[in-house]
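Structure ticket #2291
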Amino acid sequence: MREWKSLLKKDRTEWLLEASEPSLRYWTLKWLLDRDDADPELLEAQRALRASAPVQRLLADQRPEGYWGADPEAHAGTRAELHLLHWLGLDGGEPALKAAGYLAQGCLEVNGAYRYTMPGSGREILLPCHGAELARFMLRFGLARDLRLKKLVDWLLSLQKSSGAWPCPSRSAAPSCLFATALFLRLVEELRKDREVFEDDANRWALIRKASTAAADLFLTGGFARAAGNRPTQRWYSFGFPLQWDSDVLELLRLVAPHSSLDDPRIAEPLGLVMSKQRRDGTWASEKEPKGGKWMVRYVHLDPLGSSSKWVTLAAYRSLKALAH
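Resolution: structure written out below.
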């Protein structure tokens, strides 16, 4: 197996570890250097990110009930902020727990389905993409033992098509959705780290593994962009931070890594695309803004399009490292 750093034109890990950006430093220590939760440097980075201006501003703007903004509807008032808190590295605390609980209470049906009522029309739609992300929030922010999490996972499993893809039930023909399928793999990545959540239920874990294998095979055998007959937008091929309820080729390389490797011919094309975007200084550029995320500029600095991005570079390093397992 190739050493992943041999693919770099220059190793920029020290750049990613700069103390001026504690969230990036935290994830670099955790994802690239494999520091455990008791590591002094990781703990210091964690303290720094909790005290950082973006995290403190976000928490200060949260309403007492647990949501943000003027719209108390759970889907509208919590999910985007929870995405940002997750990416910034917050690992718990009462505000995040309250927000995750508010989202679960407002959007989860008794059977675990994630349902959203569209404003104005009152039309109700099912959203497996957001359901998979809610499950990640529940894992990270203190609801890993909540029975609603198991129901949500079971509902997600019940939707998978024979092709390995997840449908988009919000659309009348329920076409396969590459984003929802990728987000399920993102959820499974988190579940692998928290196996004890389902340690008493070998059957459910077996179903999760089977579903994730089918989803990964869909991408690996059908081509990352051509899977399930989809025709992705340019966002699928462009890289940026943060990703919310969408994904891209760069992230997908990491998500299929448990089923692939750097030498797998099935990933030659997407890997080639990623490596072609590496700059001479070993960095990757920001190519897209967060989907629906312009509001984030109130809290975080978004990399100017075309500029070298620490977040995208970290994502690239993380994917290469995962494929070199």
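Closing remark: The first helix runs from residue 13 to 16.
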